[in-house]
Structure formats: structure tokens, C-alpha cells
Specification:
- The complex is a heterodimer of chains A (about 625) and B (about 500).
- In chain A, about 75% of the residues lie in helices and about 5% in strands.
- Chain A contains 25 helices and four strands.
- In chain A, the strands form two sheets. In chain A, strands 1-2 form a two-stranded antiparallel ribbon. A two-stranded antiparallel sheet of chain A has the order 3-4.
- In chain A, α13 packs antiparallel against α14, α14 packs across α17 and α15 runs antiparallel to α19.
- The N and C termini of chain A lie far apart (about 95 Å).
- Chain B is about 75% helix and about 5% strand.
- Chain B contains 21 helices and two strands.
- Chain B starts with a helix and ends in a 12-residue tail after the last helix.
- By secondary structure, chain B is mostly helical.
- Classes of the chains: A mainly alpha (about 625), B mainly alpha (about 500).
- At the A-B interface, β1, α5, α6 and α24 of A face α8, α13, α15, α18 and α19 of B.
Chain lengths: ~625, ~500
């Protein structure tokens, strides 16, 4: 069952990939969407099965065949509650995005290639989720990276887009090296990479420092995949890919792999408090830092990209304080509303003929009513207004963070306010104010796109109810996986008080931002000029890319050139060729001896005989 | 049959080459396909015969199998002595697998007969080298490889072919000569200790070589003599500069065989000869060898970054990867060595295929400059797919063969010292940088040169040459067990007995 679920998208990939040019377009779409829908169906069936089983039984393990016997690594899959949640998201949201893509990509000649890659992504992502072995997880881990590379650079004729894909892959590889080294440490310490065996391993105090190293290294890997400081730089560039890809890979699923990995290996992280602190600190910094970078971006997708990085930061805060199920909860709601936001953005971009600059949009509310509504739902969900889904998950994280340490809550709250600002700004600039397009008849999303938007809108609205405070379905469902949950230290009074603070401040900031960008643009412009310096720095994303280019890329090229010109060409080749020339030269000198003059030969001959004669004369 | 199978494998290609040269001119000019077809048939027959090794090879034994021994120069104890274990088994199959592919993909029209015959002779020499169990015989095959290769580069190469081929020849020969001195000295030492000459490897393992922890002791000097020949062949930093030149000038087939098989000779030499014959000296030199292996990994990658020529880039990447292979070998533990042998096969396939594909675009454009291309994906989509798959295998993406080997090597290196694995592991980043950068410049972006607009996609013949490699790349990446199983026993024996190596001969039950 699990195998079928996993294999279906792979079959879709192979069919569309191998027969791409022979298949008619509708069939291509049918194969791609059908395979993912089938997977989702199986996953949902299994989910229902799980619910009917007692808690302790909710796990299925399948071992297919041995992979690397020398390391005891098998192709073994495991479906448990955690994997189930992720599988449902990947196949469910994934299916909607596939559906959406049918229209979005319908005029693209590379549609078969597109769907093949999308299916391949679904397969590798499922492998990442279901792998019962860290090495198998790593196949998925690198596999989704590959698909990301291929899809970011999908429009390869554009050098910039192709370069963005390459950047994503290479930055991820930096994280992956740390991941690999963590695997070496784990293997040499525990002698296995099987996640189940690792979780049952009897840890002693001696393992503490080793676990700290392993978990930190794994976290570096997570920083690469989930775009956290300092490896986040690839994600904004990744927006070069088709918008549905951004929705699926760079918002809903792949980028959350780091969070999933930490949740999966929570039994290690719980034993490594220092690593947990690092995770929280990184998550917090990233949440704030990238939220501020989203402030003045003018590319609709870039704003969403920075917001994704920021929201991922919240997930890391959650898992870092030990609230693993809250992290997964936010992962789920974020998958709904961020996919929705991206797909709505895609609808806007499609309607405006690939215009992505929000300064050139405006007044689209009446022209794209459905998109407006879906974008509104997405925005309300992400800024966390009740009863939209984002409210529940974010509030839960903030509340538990408050219990871990009020300072975390405070900064988390600041970050949430920043989110409100840039999201409402984005929403207002796109849909309100004067219209800047001359096109009278903008096309609203066609049927398949509309279905995806509507379904996701519903989930963004109501998805939070699976985690209703004190009636937390998700937490209960995940309970068999996560050994212990943190118990709040403060009472209900504090909980509702903080909730009230969050709701009121969100409303306030949202209203103010809406007013500023809708009615009071002049003042906004005025402030922009007044604080021009700050504005420049922030809108240039703190020059981090430039910094990396100068500190890593340039020296890399410089050193390789230096190696080539000096060490290889000058020193080594110099010696090698010098030796050759020396031999030729000496050979030339000695040709004097072979001058063809019979007399000199005879002389040498006589001399030789005389010398031999003398030698023996002396011996005897 | 069983006891002469190796001899058949060794002789068949050479016989085929002779047959090829006997084809009358009339036939050749009337049927242009005849010569390549005949060469392909011979190499395919050879491949089929080599598959028979599967039937006769017993993977549960580490002993030397399919042994055949015929006295040759009796007074010096030299004999024709061949046999294989689980390591040479795979290297021979790699050879017989790649040769038909090279012949199939050959685009050479000029003096085609001689060109193809050279490859067949080369195949004989390569298999002979992997099968030889007599030091002298090994040396003969070792040098025999040089001759066809010398002609392949020197006659069918590109503009600077003479410089390249002479450099290659002299460089390798210089190493070989030093090794010959070592061999003669070993034979003499055997005479001193046992009263008769022998070049038989089993006898040589038993020779007692004085060692006193200095560079100048007999064992150290002998080790260095062998090591030099092998280091040049692999090639390891700083003996590598012949390789890029040879690759750039060589015709496609020459590059494929050079990267695919010839480079493995050096690593194999360490495994079969240098490490077990001189165990103490090897131990003494291990730290420095590991250091140059790691330097090779990083240095090769950096140089690959700086290249503007497609084939040079692949050549330097090859140096980097071979550095990793040697790292796995030198750490001398079971994961490292088995990974190293596995990586030899993986590298042979992926780098061989990379050169094959570089040759395919060279055939179309007659240039190897990276800057001459750009946007080829639009005109050659199939080529783009194959190129990407092979490139990903080369940068060791999980589920391709490169990953299994690299991971095992790094696990082994890690057990020796975590730092080795961390340094060796930088190849994961650097290889992605230089390969993807190249791929982007060649395949992505807009088409900048008009000539590139009309390039033809892969022909059926080219696809036929690439498909077997791609299948193996995934097979070895996803289900490596059958491959690892066959080499496991030999590797285990090598690890456990490297200090007192005494391989026996397999007796059939």
C-alpha cells in the first residue's frame, strides 16, 4: 500500500518523461494529476484506517530490498502519524497545485517536462517523508533539491532563471555536506542509520556531546533546505520558477523538510538542549530578519518568498522549544495559506501577462473578484486573525514560546506584527488604489485554477480547527510519535491574555497599514524619502547577496585561477617541461660524440681498450 | 574451459585486431560499414565471453580464481600466470563493457581500421594487466597499454596531439621503468632468500623485505618505486599534468578508455602490489599518501572550476574523483576500500560517459570551448537529458552509482579521522559548483551562436551507446548489492591480511 502510494508519482514521471513528445496534452495532464490524486486517495484511506486503529498500532513498516548491505541500509519505508500528516499535505495540496498547473502552463511547450518534474518532486518528497532510514531520507532530501533545481530553471532560456536554479542547488549542497557528516558521526557512534533503531537506542550520558554535534550538523542541513540564516539566500531567487512550483516546492512542502527532519529526529534533539537553543535562536532571527526584508520588496512573489522564510522561522521556534506538534501544525496551516497566496499571486500574474511588480498593479479588486477573495483569505490566515487557520497555529507557537521564555514570545510577537504590515501592504497595493492597467478585460482564473483556489481558501479558513486550543485533534493524532509535549507553566488567564494582545495588535496594525497604503499613500512616500537610507538598505536585502558574492564566490574563482596559473601551469608544468627540455638539451650536447668521424671513433675505441686493460692490470 | 577463460579473454581482442587488419581493401571500400561492424562484433563477443566469468566466479571465496599458469622464462622464474579475485573481476568487466561502447560511438573515418584495431589491442593489454599475477607479465601488459594509446592520441588526436602523446608516453614510461627496476630487485631478493628466481606474485608476497622506519630502507625504496608508477597513472597531484593534455588532444574513444579504465590501473596497482607486498612501508607512508589524496580531491576540483575547455574540466574533475578513490583505499578499512573499488567502477562509467558526450558535441561543432555553446537544451533536448543524468551521477547524487561509492569512501575516511571525511566531502559542494556551472553555460540560457541553432540531437547510434551506461548508473545506485557482494570477500581479506598477505589459489570443489 505505502509502496504503491510512493511509486505512483514515479510512474507518472516516467511516463511523461519518456513519452513526452508522443502524448497528447490532455493525457499528459491526466497522468500527472491522476497519479498524485491516486496517491492522495491511498493516503486518505490509510488515514481513515489509522483513525480506526488504536493509537499504538498506527504505524506501518515495509522493507523493500537491501540498498547498501555494508552499512545495513535497506529501502525501508515507514508510515506513522507524522509521516501521514505530511503525506496528506504533499499529495493533497500537491494535487491541487497539479490541477492548477493544467491551466497555468497550458500554453507552455514544455508542459510534459513540467509535469514530469512535478511528479518526480512528489515522489522524492514522499521518499523523504516515508524513508525509515536516514540515508533513504537523504535520497529524498537531495532528490527534492534536484527537482527544485530543475523547476526553478524550468525556463532555461533565461540565463538568470537558470542561474537561480544553480544557486539553489549549490547552497543546498553546503547544507547537505553538514548533513552527510552528521550521518558519518551517527553511523560511527550508533552503527546504524535506521531511524526506528536509532530511536530505540539506549543513550547514555557519554552520548550527549556527540548528539549535540550530530544535531547541530543536521540543523545546518535543515538551514539549507528550509532557507534559514545563513543559507536562506537561494529561496528569494527560486521565485524564478513557475508560480505553481513556488507554491508547491518553495512554500508548502519541500522547504518544510528541515522542520520535518527535526520533528522526525526529535528524540535526538530532546537530548541536545544546546542544539535546541540554537534552533530557536536561528528560527527567531530568521523570522524577524526576513520579515523585515519583505517590507519594501516590489515583486509580489519575492514578498511571499521572504514571508515563507519568516514563517519557517516560526516552525523552527516551535520545534526548538520542544513543541514538535505545534511546529507540524504550523507547517500544515502554512501549507494551506501559503500555497493559496502563491496560487492567487499566480492568478494575478497570469491575468496581468507576467507582471510581477506590485507598484504597477492596483485596483484589481473588482477586476479579479475571486482572486481578490482568495488572496484575502490567505492574508487573513497568515496574519493570524481568528478564526482563520494561521491564527491557531501561530498563537499556539507563541503561547508555548511564552512558556519557554517570555523573550521568545516578545520577539515572535514583533515578527507577527511585521508580517501583518508587509502582507497587508502587499494585499492593498495589489487590489486597492488606482488601477494601473489599461486592459479592460482581465481574465479571472479559469475553472481548474478556480477549484484549487476555492478549496485552498476553505482550508485556509477552516484548517485551523484541527488544532483548536484544548481540543487539539492534531496533537492527539501525533501523540504516539512525539514522546513528550511541553506542559504550559502559566495558567489560562495568561493564555487568553496573550491571545487578546495578539488579536488586538494584529487588528490595529492591519487597519493602520491598510489605511496608509490605501488612502494615505503620500505620507508613505514621504516617510520613504525621509528614511531613504534605511529604505535602501532594507530593499536591497541588507546586501547579503553582495556580501556572499564577495566573501565566497569571488575568492573561489580567484583561488582556482591562482591554482591554474601559478601552481599548475607555472610550477608543475614548468618542472615537467623543464625536465623534458633539459634532456633534449643534453642530448644535443652529446651528439658531438657521434660526429661520424672514423678517426675519433677509433681514438675512443683505443682509449676504451686501454682503460679496461689498465683496470685489469691493477686488479691482478 | 574455465581454466583458460581468462586467456581467451586476453587473446580474443588481439586476434580480432589481427583479423581486422587482414580485411582486404576491396571489401573495405565497398562496404564502409564492414570494418566498424567487425570490430563491434569482436568487442561484443568479448563482452559476452566476459559475462561467462559470472558462471565460474565463486563470490564466497577471496582466493585467486580461474587461474592459469604456463612457464615462460624458466631460469628467471617468470611465467604466464593469470587469475582474478573479486576486485579484478569487476575491473575486467568494466573494460569489456566500455570497449564496445567506444567502438560503437567512434566517429573516426580516417584510417578507421587501424584506429579500431588499436582499441582491440588496448583491450587485450588492459585485461592482461588486470589478470596478471606475475610481476613481469604485469609489467609487459602495463607497457603494452602505452603503445596503442600512444598512437590513438598521436594519430587521431587534435592539434597539439604530438606534444600530448609524447608527454603521456614519457611520463608513464618513466614511472614504469622505475617499477621495472623494483620488480627486478624483488626477483633478486627472492633468489637470495629462497635460492631461485621468481616473479610469481604469490612467491613475492612471501619475500621478507627489510624495513627500519626510514625512507631509505629497502622496503621503502621498493615501495616508492612501485608507488611512483601508480601515482603517475592515477594520476595523483603533483604528477597529474599529463592527463588534461592527453584528454584534450585524444579522440573521444581515447578519452573514454583513458578515464574509464586506464586511470584505474594505478589504484589497482596499489591494491594488488604496492600495498600487500610492502605493508610496513605502506603504513609508514600512509599519512603523506592520504594528504596528497586529499590535496588531489580539492585541488582537482578547484582547477576544474577554472577551466574554459569542456574536456579539460572533465579531466580535472577526474583527478578530483580519483583522489577520493585513493583516499578510500589508503584509509584501509572495509568501508573505505570497498567504496573505493565501487567508486572505480562508478567513475569509469560516469566519467567515461561524460567524455563520450563531450565528444558528441565536439563532432557537431568541432570545438570544446565552453563559451562557444549556450542554450543547447533547446536544440538538443535528448542530449540535455542524458548529459544531466550522467553529470548528476558524477556529482554523486543519491540513487546514482556515484553516491554509493562516495558515501562508503567517506564513511571509511571518517572512521580514520573525521577531518578526512570533512575535507574529502568538500567535493560534494565543489563538484556541484563546477559541473552545474558548466552545464548552465553549455545547455541553458539563450542560444548565443547561430551555428548552434542547427545542431542535431542524438542519433540512434549515440543513444544506443549511452543507454547501457545510464541503466548501470541507476542499477548500481539503487541496487548495488550484487556488485558489492562479488567484491566483498576479496576486500575483506585485503583489509584483514594486508600486513601478512598470502593469497592462495582457489581449488574447485
Amino acid at each position: 500500500m505505502i509502496t504503491t502510494l510512493l511509486i505512483l508519482p514515479l510512474i507518472g514521471f516516467l511516463m511523461n518523461g519518456l513519452l513526452s513528445r508522443r502524448l497528447p496534452r490532455p493525457l499528459v495532464c491526466l497522468i500527472a494529476c491522476g497519479s498524485v490524486l491516486f496517491s492522495f486517495g491511498i493516503a486518505f484511506y490509510l488515514f481513515l484506517q489509522f483513525l480506526s486503529w488504536p493509537e499504538g498500532w498506527r504505524s506501518i513498516t515495509v522493507t523493500l530490498f537491501p540498498w547498501i548491505p555494508q552499512l545495513g541500509v535497506d529501502f525501508s519505508l515507514k508510515m506513522d502519524a507524522l509521516a501521514m500528516v505530511l503525506t496528506l499535505i504533499v499529495t493533497g495540496v500537491g494535487f491541487l497545485i497539479h490541477l492548477y498547473s493544467i491551466h497555468y502552463m497550458k500554453d507552455d511547450p514544455g508542459i510534459a517536462r513540467y509535469f514530469a518534474f512535478l511528479n518526480l518532486f512528489t515522489f522524492t518528497m514522499l521518499l523523504l517523508i516515508l524513508g525509515n532510514n536516514l540515508l533513504l531520507l537523504f535520497i529524498g532530501w537531495e532528490g527534492v533539491g534536484l527537482c527544485s533545481y530543475l523547476l526553478i530553471g524550468f525556463w532555461f532560456e533565461d540565463t538568470e532563471k537558470a542561474a537561480a536554479g544553480k544557486k539553489a542547488f549549490i547552497v543546498n549542497r553546503v547544507g547537505d555536506l553538514a548533513f552527510l557528516i552528521a550521518l558519518f558521526f551517527a553511523f560511527s557512534t550508533f552503527g546504524t542509520l535506521n531511524i526506528e533503531s536509532l530511536s530505540l537506542y539506549q543513550m547514555t550520558a557519554e552520548h550527549q556531546s556527540m548528539l549535540t554535534i550530530i544535531t547541530l550538523l543536521l540543523f545546518i542541513g535543515a538551514c539549507g533546505k528550509s532557507a534559514q540564516i545563513p543559507l536562506y539566500v537561494w529561496l528569494p531567487d527560486a521565485m524564478a520558477g513557475p508560480t505553481p512550483v513556488s507554491a508547491l516546492i518553495h512554500a508548502a512542502t519541500m522547504v518544510t523538510a528541515g522542520v520535518y527532519m527535526i520533528a522526525r529526529l526529535h528524540f535526538w534533539y530532546l537530548l541536545a538542549p544546546f542544539s535546541m537553543h540554537v534552533v530557536v535562536a536561528t528560527g527567531l532571527c530568521t523570522a524577524l530578519f526576513s520579515a523585515s526584508m519583505a517590507f519594501f520588496q516590489n515583486d509580489i512573489k519575492k514578498v511571499l518568498a521572504y514571508s515563507t522564510i519568516s514563517q519557517l522561522g516560526y516552525m523552527f521556534i516551535a520545534v526548538g522549544i520542544g513543541a514538535f506538534s505545534s511546529g507540524i501544525f504550523h507547517l500544515v496551516t502554512h501549507a494551506f495559506f501559503k500555497a493559496l497566496l502563491f496560487l492567487s499571486a499566480g492568478s494575478v500574474i497570469g491575468a496581468l501577462h507576467h507582471e510581477q511588480n506590485i507598484q504597477k498593479m492596483g485596483g484589481l479588486k473588482s477586476k479579479l473578484p475571486l482572486t481578490h477573495l482568495s488572496f484575502l483569505f490567505g492574508t487573513l490566515a497568515i496574519i493570524g486573525l481568528p478564526p482563520f487557520s494561521g491564527f491557531f497555529s501561530k498563537d499556539e507557537i507563541l503561547w508555548l514560546a511564552f512558556n519557554a521564555h517570555p523573550v521568545i514570545w516578545f520577539f515572535g510577537w514583533i515578527g507577527a506584527m511585521m508580517t501583518v504590515f508587509y502582507m497587508v501592504r502587499l494585499f492593498t497595493l495589489v487590489f486597492y488604489g488606482p488601477s494601473k492597467t489599461n486592459d479592460k478585460h482581465l481574465h479571472e482564473a479559469p475553472i481548474f485554477m478556480a477549484i484549487a483556489l476555492i478549496v485552498l481558501s476553505l482550508f485556509s479558513f477552516a484548517g485551523g480547527f484541527i488544532g483548536f486550543p484544548h481540543h487539539h485533534f492534531l496533537e492527539e493524532f501525533l501523540a504516539p510519535v512525539f514522546i513528550k509535549q511541553i506542559a504550559p507553566a502559566y495558567g489560562h488567564g495568561a493564555e487568553y491574555g496573550l491571545m487578546g494582545v495578539a488579536i488586538l495588535s494584529t487588528l490595529g496594525v492591519a487597519a493602520w497599514t491598510f489605511y496608509t497604503f490605501h488612502k494615505n499613500r503620500a505620507w508613505a512616500e514621504h516617510m520613504k524619502i525621509k528614511f531613504a537610507k534605511v529604505h535602501t538598505i532594507i530593499s536591497n536585502k541588507y546586501y547579503v547577496d553582495e556580501f556572499y558574492a564577495r566573501v565566497f564566490v569571488k575568492p573561489l574563482n580567484l583561488v582556482s585561477d591562482l591554482f591554474l596559473k601559478w601552481i599548475d601551469t607555472f610550477i608543475i608544468e614548468g618542472i615537467v617541461n623543464g625536465l623534458g627540455r633539459f634532456c633534449v638539451y643534453m642530448g644535443g650536447r652529446y651528439t658531438i660524440l657521434q660526429n661520424g668521424n672514423l678517426q675519433s671513433y677509433a681514438f675512443a675505441f683505443v682509449l676504451g681498450v686501454a682503460l679496461i686493460f689498465l683496470y685489469y692490470w691493477n686488479r691482478f | 574451459m574455465a581454466h583458460s577463460l581468462l586467456t581467451v579473454l586476453i587473446c580474443l581482442p588481439a586476434a580480432g585486431a589481427l583479423l581486422l587488419l587482414c580485411v582486404p581493401k576491396v571489401l573495405e571500400s565497398r562496404y564502409r560499414w564492414f570494418i566498424p561492424a567487425l570490430a563491434l562484433a569482436v568487442s561484443l563477443a568479448e563482452f559476452v565471453f566476459s559475462l561467462a566469468l559470472f558462471c565460474y566466479f565463486d563470490a564466497s571465496s577471496h582466493l585467486l580464481q580461474l587461474v592459469q599458469k604456463v612457464p615462460w622464462i624458466h631460469s628467471l622464474g617468470i611465467s604466464y600466470f593469470v587469475g582474478i579475485d573479486g576486485i579484478s573481476f569487476w575491473l575486467i568487466l568494466l573494460t569489456t563493457f566500455l570497449t564496445p561502447i567506444v567502438i560503437l560511438a567512434s566517429e573516426v573515418r580516417e584510417r578507421q581500421k587501424a584506429y579500431l584495431a588499436s582499441f582491440l589491442v588496448l583491450e587485450t593489454a588492459m585485461i592482461g594487466t588486470f589478470a596478471a599475477l606475475d610481476l613481469f607479465l604485469f609489467y609487459v601488459f602495463w607497457e603494452m597499454m602505452l603503445i596503442p594509446m600512444y598512437f590513438i592520441i598521436g594519430i587521431w588526436g587534435s592539434t597539439r596531439r604530438l606534444y600530448a602523446t609524447i608527454k603521456f608516453f614519457i611520463y608513464t614510461l618513466a614511472g614504469g621503468i622505475v617499477m621495472l627496476l623494483g620488480i627486478i630487485f624483488l626477483m633478486y631478493l627472492h633468489y637470495e632468500q629462497f635460492g631461485f628466481f621468481s616473479a610469481n606474485i604469490l612467491d613475492i608476497y612471501a619475500v621478507d623485505l627489510p624495513f627500519d622506519f626510514s625512507v631509505l630502507s629497502t622496503q621503502s625504496l621498493l615501495f616508492l618505486a612501485f608507488a611512483l608508477a601508480f601515482l603517475i597513472k592515477i594520476p595523483m597531484f603533483p604528477f597529474h599534468t599529463w592527463l588534461p593534455d592527453a584528454h584534450v588532444e585524444a579522440p573521444t574513444g581515447g578519452s573514454v578508455i583513458l578515464a574509464g579504465v586506464l586511470l584505474k590501473m594505478g589504484a589497482y596497482g596499489f591494491l594488488r602490489f604496492a600495498m600487500p607486498i610492502f605493508p610496513e612501508a605502506f603504513k609508514f607512508f600512509t599519512p603523506s599518501l592520504i594528504i596528497i589524496a586529499i590535496i588531489g580531491v580539492i585541488y582537482g576540483a578547484f582547477l576544474a572550476l577554472a577551466q574554459k575547455d569542456l574536456k579539460k574540466l572533465i579531466a580535472y574533475s577526474s583527478i578530483s574523483h580519483m583522489g577520493l578513490v585513493m583516499l578510500g583505499l589508503f584509509v584501509l578499512n572495509s568501508h573505505g576500500v570497498i567504496g573505493s573499488v565501487y567508486q572505480m567502477l562508478a567513475h569509469g562509467l560516469s566519467t567515461g560517459a561524460l567524455f563520450l558526450m563531450a565528444g558528441m558535441i565536439y563532432e557537431r561543432r568541432h570545438t570544446k570551448k565552453i563559451s562557444e555553446f549556450g542554450g543547447l537544451t533547446a536544440v538538443m533536448p535528448l542530449f540535455a537529458v542524458f548529459f544531466l543524468i550522467i553529470l548528476l551521477a558524477s556529482i554523486a547524487l543519491p540513487a546514482t552509482n556515484g553516491f554509493v561509492g562516495e558515501f562508503l569512501i567517506l564513511v571509511g575516511a571518517f572512521q580514520k579521522h573525521p577531518l578526512y571525511a570533512a575535507l574529502g566531502g568538500t567535493t560534494a559542494i565543489l563538484s556541484a559548483v563546477y559541473m552545474l556551472r558548466m552545464y548552465q553555460k553549455v545547455m541553458f540560457g539563450p542560444i548565443t551562436r547561430e551555428v548552434n541553432r542547427t545542431l542535431k540531437d542524438l542519433s540512434l547510434k549515440e543513444i544506443a551507446a549511452l543507454i547501457p551506461i545510464v541503466i548501470l548508473i541507476f542499477w548500481m545506485g539503487i541496487y548495488p548489492k550484487p556488485f558489492l557482494n562479488k567484491m566483498e570477500k576479496s576486500v575483506d581479506y585485503f583489509i584483514t591480511h594486508q600486513q601478512n598477505y598470502e593469497l592462495g589459489v582457489y581449488e574447485e570443489k
